[in-house]
Amino acid sequence: MTTVEIEYCVPCGLLDPAIETQTRLLDEFGQELEGVTLAPSHGGVFTVTADGETIWDRAVHGIELDLEVIVSSVDDRLSTDA
Predict the structure, then answer these.
(1) The domain at 2-81 falls in which architecture?
(2) Which of 21, 32, 69, 73 could pair with 55 in a Cys bridge, judged by C-beta atoms 3.0 to 4.6 Å apart?
(3) What phi and psi values does residue 34 have, to the nearest 5 degrees?
(4) pLDDT (tens digit, 9 = 90+) per residue, 17-60?
């Protein structure tokens, strides 16, 4: 099963997008995931990893959060695990 971690910058106010991402993944994949955890951080970080592999990084992808890319990446991972 796939585990997703969302590391987000607390001082930047990125808790809400982190919760939105977490909720979307749980709504979309439910029990197919082992878990979706939030990891508070700092320094402008917003990174989503699946089983330790980065699938979204604010430093690479830009400030605009694209949930469709994240959902698609998790879906691809789940499809290959099946």
Answers:
(1) 3-Layer(aba) Sandwich (3.40)
(2) 73
(3) -70, -35
(4) 999 999 999 999 999 999 999 999 999 999 999 999 999 999 99
Q: Which residues sit opposite 5 in a β-bridge? A: 37, 49
**Measured in Å, how far apart are the chain's first and last C-alpha atoms?**
9
Contact (CB, 8 A) for 8 and 41: yes
Residue 5 has a pLDDT of: 98
pLDDT in tens, 63-76: 899 999 999 999 99
Helical (H) or strand (E) element with 15 = helix 15-29
Give the span between the Cα atoms of 46 and 34, in whole angstroms: 21
C-alpha torsion 17→56→42→52, nearest 10 = 120
Q: Where are the domains of the chain?
A: 2-81
**Residue 61 CB-density burial (10 A; 0-12 exposed, 13-18 middle, 19+ buried):** middle
Structure tokens at 12: 């930047």
